[in-house]
Amino acid sequence: MPRYILNAVVNNEQKVTATFAALADPTRRRIVQRLSEQGETRVTGLAKPFRISLPAISRHLRVLERARLIERRRCGREHFIRPRPSGLEEARKWIAHYAQAWDSSFDVLDQLLETAKQKEKIR
Fold first, then answer.
1. What is d(CA 45, CA 35) in angstroms, rounded to the nearest whole number?
2. pLDDT score recorded for residue 9
3. Which of 72, 70, 88 is closest to 20 using CA atoms?
4. What are phi and psi of 79, to 5 degrees?
5. Do 61 and 73 meet the contact criterion of CB atoms below 8 Å apart?
6. What is the pTM of this model?
7. Average pLDDT for runs of 10 along the chain of length 123
8. Closest CA to 88 of 63, 68, 61
9. How far apart are CA 66 and CA 119, in angstroms?
10. What pLDDT score was predicted for residue 90?
11. What are the structural domains of the chain?
């Protein structure tokens, strides 16, 4: 396998891992959900409904930034956060690939069960 293909596979796997790791936390999922519903939001406004400190929110935002699920924009002293939907693309592809494989496996299982039923009827 050429080196650039191997690097692409490893990089893709790292992106998917970072995405799932970031979304494993319920607080980060709620942050992504709020951003998806509201669009760009100030960090202070984003933090309001959470019962955790602003530094804790900032740590969650850094994880989401590293996973490339959000983007940060600074305007003076204010920080604005917005969702980055394309950050979910690699994870979406990964899920779709395995969902298709599982569906195919279930189709084969259905065929085997149907064949077994037919054989039972013949006996």
1. 11
2. 47
3. 88
4. -110, 130
5. no
6. 0.72
7. 51 86 96 94 93 94 96 94 91 84 67 76 73
8. 68
9. 56
10. 86
11. 3-122 (1.10.10.10)
Please, which residues bridge with residue 72 across strands? Answer: 81
Q: Which of 90, 100, 99 is nearest to 20 (CA)?
A: 90
Structure tokens at 40: 């760009």
The pLDDT of residue 93: 87
Element housing 7 (H / E): helix 3-23
pLDDT at 37: 93
Say if residues 115 and 107 touch (Cβ distance below 8 Å): no
Q: What is the pLDDT of residue 6?
A: 41
pLDDT score at 97:
85
State how far the Cα of 41 lies from the Cα of 48, in Å rounded to an integer: 11
Helix axis angle for 3-23 and 54-66, nearest 10°, is 150
Q: Which candidate, 95, 63, 99, 97, places its Cα nearest to that of 81?
A: 63
